[in-house]
Design goal:
- There is one protein chain.
- This protein is mostly helical.
- The chain is 91% helix and 0% strand.
- It contains five helices and no strands.
- Helix 1 packs parallel to helix 3, helix 1 runs antiparallel to helix 5 and helix 2 packs antiparallel against helix 3.
- The longest helix has 90 residues.
- The N and C termini lie far apart (81 Å).
């Protein structure tokens, strides 16, 4: 009887130990599986965050490029308009002096030059430094280009000009015109390189 009781007790204890061990192993396996899933989820979220950050940087670079491109184009357009207005003003040097026409064309040319200056200021804000400097010098060249016809027409308003005065005007106008061309040729490749650099940086982010 005692032997039977002991055998039964041992069997019960063995069953309980086996059940406990099985539950322990099962719980540990489940915990490890959950930890592995959590680590995988963390890695996935980190990868998603990195991808989102890269995409954000690329979009920012594209946004900066678009802003710069718009600023550069505005300066080019304003300078072109100013050159046209100055040319219209300079045509008056070939005609008898007319105060009204002079005032109209001078005002239009000055407004166009002022717009070029403002466009150059926007380029300065957008950068980079080399392009900002070239843009400022481009606008300065446009500003200087307006002075020869204004000076000549002011003198013409006081009477007929001598051949020497005419030659001096033509020489001065030609010099400032060439300077505008030089500054444009300097500005354009620098602006193009700055835009390409931003796109290269965006490409490296992907």
């Amino acid at each position: 009887m005692t032997s039977t009781w002991m055998t039964t007790a041992i069997a019960i204890v063995g069953t309980l130990l086996g059940s406990g061990l099985t539950a322990f192993v099962t719980a540990r396996t489940e915990r490890r599986k959950n930890e592995a899933l959590e680590r995988q989820q963390i890695r996935q979220e980190a990868a998603q965050d990195r991808a989102a950050l890269r995409e954000l940087r690329v979009e920012h670079q594209k946004w900066r490029r678009d802003r710069r491109q718009a600023a550069y184009k505005s300066l080019m357009d304003a300078a072109h308009e100013a050159q046209g207005a100055i040319w219209q003003l300079a045509r008056l040097t070939l005609e008898p002096y007319d105060q009204h026409r002079y005032d109209m064309r001078r005002g239009a040319a000055i407004d166009a030059v002022r717009a070029t200056r403002q466009a150059a200021t926007t380029v300065e804000l957008e950068g980079p430094a080399a392009v900002a400097q070239a843009g400022a010098e481009y606008a300065e060249a446009i500003d200087r280009h307006i002075h020869p016809p204004i000076q000549y027409l002011m003198e013409l308003s006081r009477g007929t000009q001598t051949d020497e005065q005419k030659d001096r005007y033509r020489s001065s106008a030609a010099e400032t015109g060439l300077h505008v061309d030089d500054m444009q040729r300097r500005f354009v490749p620098l602006a193009r390189a700055a835009l390409d650099e931003l796109m290269d940086e965006a490409g490296q982010q992907t």
